[in-house]
Fold each of these.
Amino acid sequence: MDRHVAFDGLHNFRDLGGYPTTDGHRVRPGRLYRADSLGRLTPGTPDWSRFLSLGIGTVIDLRHDWEIEKRGRIPEDASFTYRNLSIEHRPYNQAALGADVDPGPYLAERFLEVAEDGTKEIREALELLAESKAPLVFHCASGKDRTGELAALILSLLGVDERTIIEDFSLTELATQALLSDWRARNNGNSPNWPGFARAPESVMRLFLERLNSRYGSVQGYVAEALGMDAEALSTRLRENLLEPTPTTWQPLTYRRATPRDAPTLVRLRDSVALWMLARGIDQWKPGEKDEAHFRRRMDEGEVWLAHSANHLAGAYELWWTDEAAWGPRPAEAGYIHRLMTTPHLAPPGTGRALLTHAESRITEAALPYARLDCLSTNPRLRTYYESAGYTVAGEQPAKDGGLGSPYAVTLLEKRLG
């Protein structure tokens, strides 16, 4: 499955399915969606047909009445029920904030206000979710703050861990540029005053959860104390409605060599993995570091491969034939594996090892005896992963220039093939 559902006029429509819980279940795909404003949908368009095909039975609009009047609401249709539950009672203008406002603490405080001001509406939204037997979508304007906060409460009650909840919030970063473009189009081409506008750094959700936990002990404590609900009973109903056992069988991986048309997909995959890392405190990749031109260049100078399971993207990797930045001048004796990426939460177990094996087979076909790669010296967990796949440490490069303007230390690993 692909977490992001593609629409022409929507930028942040996502399926919450596939997230694992701490007890071996996962959120059932195709049952719970979060989105930016559905007021941009128009009957008779491909977007409208795509939306109706999801079988959604309830739409929860978290915006203010005046936002709906100004920007429109989703058109009426007999297939779903529409509810407007404005959970934010103290509106604020993010676009006009000063450049010195740090998004993390500022938005975390606004989220706490919403959690305590909007108890009536949040309670009703959670009840609708617990009762709904058909797919449900909730949305605000950009699908970031109000939508992200409600998603965090739901995922926590379902038993999803905090790192994944933080990651889910930060995935709006993949839509930031499109959301900014829409804002500029509505405002005569001007840009927002606040650099943090439409951004979703992990610090926002991390700080909000810290403050909510500090005040109430946990999300469950908040539900009991602030919402006046039986948190355990609510959690049980939500879990019965929205969870399924984690699959034990998966469709086999198929491989396809990437073409220039795949560059946007590769950028999105890399940025998704970067956000997964940041939510877990791994300071390695940042979103936006590699653009489409990077991947097209790697296709020209080497190989880039995609792996799919049941027609859904599971992962990708780059294969280089030289790597002087890390290994220095070397004879033509190795293939160099880079950017081994698996789709967070949605790839079949073992996809990373399968990608390594596929890359090694390509190196063997090129009649080269070594597979080589490197990893950050500060990431011992990744080094252990590669060592478990048969790679041994061949040295250290204390100042690799990866083209990002700041050299970094890497551990060099290699594996003799055949």
Amino acid sequence: MRIHGTSKTKESKYNSTVGLIISIGMLVVALMVFDFSNMPAFGKIFMIFWVFAVCAQIYQSYRNSIFSNKSLHHEVTDHSLKVSGGAKSTAPKQQDGNVSHAMRLRQIEQLYREGLLTTDEYEAKRQDVLDEDWGK
């Protein structure tokens, strides 16, 4: 069985707010603790890039945080993942065309109770049904 497709998600406002607070703390520590006058040239260049990266993180976290009404990401969360390579199912369909997972689970359990499936077969078939997409 193979899962392929795209899944776009966005960080929650509360996670962005925590990231904002941590990033501001990192910037304050860098500016207060390090003595840039005695630092070698490589260290100064590194700190310039590091401060720039932290400022970019602060900007992004602020735009996605609880303090802002605008978000940097405007795409809708998309979970268009598809499963391929699995066995085809001959399960009964509901009127709207979706597979009745509950009905299939009941049928598998009935076959197990009647002794037509071993414990291993029952657990494998049941897990196959549980692993399928129930969203549609």
Amino acid sequence: MDNAQAPIALVGFDADDTLWRSEDYFAQAQVEFERIISRYVDLDDSRARERLYAVEKGNLALFGYGVKGMALSMMEAAIELTGERISAADMHRILRMAKDMLDHPVELLPGVREAVEEIVSAYQVVLITKGDLFHQEAKVRQSGLAHLFPRIEIVSEKDPPTYARVLEEFKLPPQRFLMIGNSLRSDVAPVLALGGWAVHMPYHLTWEHEREADLGGDAWRMREAGRPAELPAAVREVAAMAADSATGRAGPV
């Protein structure tokens, strides 16, 4: 489609928990981690979940996002929580858990393939995902969706400078970009801050870190979709809003 004059010229897709399941496996790992730690300390008294999150958040700048960073943070937290009493066997269980997650098959969300194909038929698209390079490349490859995305960006962080760089390479202003994703922090807030548009498709599980977002007065440029089948209609609605905004007929209420 020639979208040289279209109000929305580029649609970005997140990957984890937007195209396929991901957080489910992290939640299962959290439960297993707590089961292991409970052999040494009381989970409530030790504030195990809170302290693990603090370690993970503190390590993001060093390890980045993804399974490998999670595993290293779990090992560090396990040592601290147990006062260095955790056994080598239990440390190995944490390592094994991470390896199992890295080997887990990709499971597309119901209706995702059809939704992406419909949007691809009308818009130029880009896949923008963050996390460990090797793991994300493997998931994209195994998903069977790679051929639908002429451009795939695997980034260390999804913030305004990252999105600005991608848009500069496409030679597009933010006002002509729409991002689809499950994370308010990574997929919605930074795009809206630049002046772009978003479709938020919440996932039933979301890591606490990805829920920390303040959309402020930019929330009017976002719409929600409850499931993948609703994405094409949501994109059309946002595109209509973008067209009205460009002519001054739409704006913050």
